Amino acid sequence: xxxxxxxxxxxxxxxxxxxxxxxxxxxxxxxxxxxxxxxxxxxxxxxxxxxxxxxxxxxxxxxxxxxxxxxxxxxxxxxxxxxxxxxxxxxxxxxxxxxxxxxxxxxxxxxxxxxxxxxxxxxxxxxxxxxxxxxxxxxx
Length: 140
Known about the structure:
This protein is α+β, with helices and mostly antiparallel strands.
C-alpha cells in the first residue's frame, strides 16, 4: 500500500487558502518595493469579478454608479472617525473603455493614504483629511 505524505497536501492547501484571501479588504497590506512603489495591486486576479469584490469587502462602482459595498465604505469611515486604522479597496468599472481600476485607501495613525492602480506614481503620500464630495446629476 502506498503511503501518502500529508505535508505536501497541507502546503498546497495553505497556498490556496492564502491566495484566495489576498484581495479581502481587511487583508490589504501597505507594502512597497525597493523603489518605494506600492505593491498592493499585484495580487489582483485578471478575472476578479465585481461580485467577488463585494464579497471581499470592496466598494464597487460602475460608470460612477454604486454597485455594492456601501456597508464596507461606512465601516471604513466609522473606523477612521473613531481613530482606528482601516483600509478599503475600491473597484471602479468603466464600460466606455472596458476598463477596471482599483484604489486602495488606508487610514493609519491619523492620516490617509491612497493608491490608484492607474497612476504612474505609486509612492507613499499621506493626507490629513478625506473630503467626501457629493453632487447631483445634471441629466435632464
